[in-house]
Design brief:
With 321 residues, this protein is α/β, with parallel strands linked by helices. It folds into two domains: 4-100 and 287-318, Rossmann fold (3-Layer(aba) Sandwich), CATH 3.40.50; 102-278, NAD(P)-binding Rossmann-like Domain (Rossmann fold), CATH 3.40.50.720. Helices cover 36% and strands 15% of the residues. It has helices at residues 14-23, 37-44, 60-64, 84-89, 102-118, 120-128, 152-163, 177-183, 190-196, 216-221, 239-247, 287-305, and strands at 4-8, 24-28, 49-52, 71-74, 94-95, 144-148, 167-171, 186-187, 199-202, 227-230, 253-256, 276-278. The strands form two sheets. The chain has a seven-stranded parallel sheet with strand order 8-7-6-9-10-11-12, sandwiched between helices. β4 (71-74), α4 and β5 (94-95) form a beta-alpha-beta unit. α1 (14-23) packs parallel to α12 (287-305) and α5 (102-118) crosses α7 (152-163). It binds NADP nicotinamide-adenine-dinucleotide phosphate. NADP nicotinamide-adenine-dinucleotide phosphate binds next to α7.
């Protein structure tokens, strides 16, 4: 394998970096915040590979600026910031890292629900203030969990919820018969699910179709005792509508790992409410999982540079044969 030039839009784990550095000359963004698109375009002019770290926008303009690109490899599963159609048109295979982050993200998602239901974080804050008082929450046992987006992560959340004695209902655009068998999950229309579920977890990929799918009408349709968890993408939720629903107690509580805007400014009005819990997009953020993601991303990158089939290619039609 000759030396290829690879651009990295952020840092990765030492093992993954060393493996890449054996075969490639690396240009890596180490600056504050996201790499500016202009800098990225400039760096990609003579690059063979792009290691997309940190939800960087990949559009036609960027691809035009990178005539030698053989592969784009992303560490992460959601690819709403990538124009996959444009990659395909340019014949550039694009890969993400599905599978390896499922259990970690499901743990965080169910953890958010549990923390919200039992006010774990609120209890700890009180203890730190010397206030040893009972903080009341609600049972999850016997309640109905509505999963919107019963894919890899949704199913893993459903398994955790079932083990905790919850009933499962779900909504996808198409039915998922294995989940119905394995988890006694009941398929409902989106509207039925909103009315029926005690707790609702959103794990739908962000797309033009799903953007803002939780808005004023949807929050009004939920039970006033509903717990809402978003662990997918902030853009699925209309933040203003969620704020109003929480403020007016149209729903009971929201726990969010993703927000719009993201990062959520510390003085954002959502954070003034007492019935909201927010974590900084840490669904897959465990040492083991992030290492596995980086390893898989590097594997895809090295295969693509050699024009060999990527393991987890999103646009299979242009994957190398
Ligand atoms: P997945 O296996 O592709 O599952 C997505 C599910 O959503 C599918 O079952 C799909 O079924 C359903 N779906 C898609 N569009 C829909 C729509 N418009 N309405 C209703 N259901 C829809 O994906 P995954 O691996 O579980 O990941 C899901 C999302 O989680 C990712 O796209 C990513 O944005 C997010 N994520 C977040 C973190 C984090 O750190 N918080 C970590 C990993 C992933 P149908 O096609 O039948 O509709």
């Amino acid at each position: 394998m000759g030396k290829y030039k690879v651009v990295m839009s952020g840092k990765t784990w030492p093992n993954a970096y060393e493996k890449l550095a054996e075969h490639c000359d690396i240009q890596m963004w180490e600056g504050e915040g996201k790499i500016p698109q202009e800098t990225l375009r400039d760096w990609l002019r003579d690059a063979d590979g792009f290691f997309n770290i940190g939800h960087i926008t990949v559009d036609e303009e960027l691809l035009e600026a990178a005539p030698n690109l053989r592969v784009i490899s992303q560490s992460g599963v959601g690819y709403d910031s990538v124009d996959v159609e444009a990659c395909t048109k340019k014949g550039v295979p694009f890969s993400n890292t599905p599978g390896v982050l499922v259990e970690a993200t499901a743990d965080l998602t169910f953890g958010l629900l549990l923390s919200a239901a039992r006010r774990i974080h609120e209890g700890y804050e009180k203890v730190k203030q010397g206030n040893w008082e009972t903080v009341f929450g609600v049972d999850l046992f016997g309640k109905t969990l509505g999963i919107v987006g019963m894919g890899d992560i949704g199913s893993a959340v459903a398994r955790r919820a079932k083990a905790s004695g919850m009933n499962i209902v779900y909504h996808n655009r198409s039915r998922k018969h294995e989940a119905e068998k394995e988890l006694d999950a009941v398929y409902l229309s989106f509207e039925e699910l909103l009315h029926t579920a005690d707790c609702i977890v959103c794990l739908v990929p962000l797309s033009n179709e799903s953007k803002g799918m939780f808005g004023e009408e949807e929050f009004k349709a939920m039970k006033s005792s509903a717990y809402f968890v978003n662990a997918a993408r902030g853009g699925l939720v209309n933040t203003e509508a969620l704020y109003e629903a929480l403020k007016n107690e149209e729903i009971a509580y929201a726990a969010l790992d993703v927000t719009d805007p993201e990062p959520l400014p510390a003085d954002h009005k959502l954070l003034q409410l007492s019935n909201v819990l927010v974590t900084p997009h840490i669904g897959s953020a465990t040492y083991e999982t992030r290492n596995r993601m980086a390893d898989l991303a590097v594997q895809n990158l090295l295969l693509g540079l050699e024009k060999k089939p990527l393991v987890t290619c999103v646009n299979e039609e242009v994957n190398y044969k």
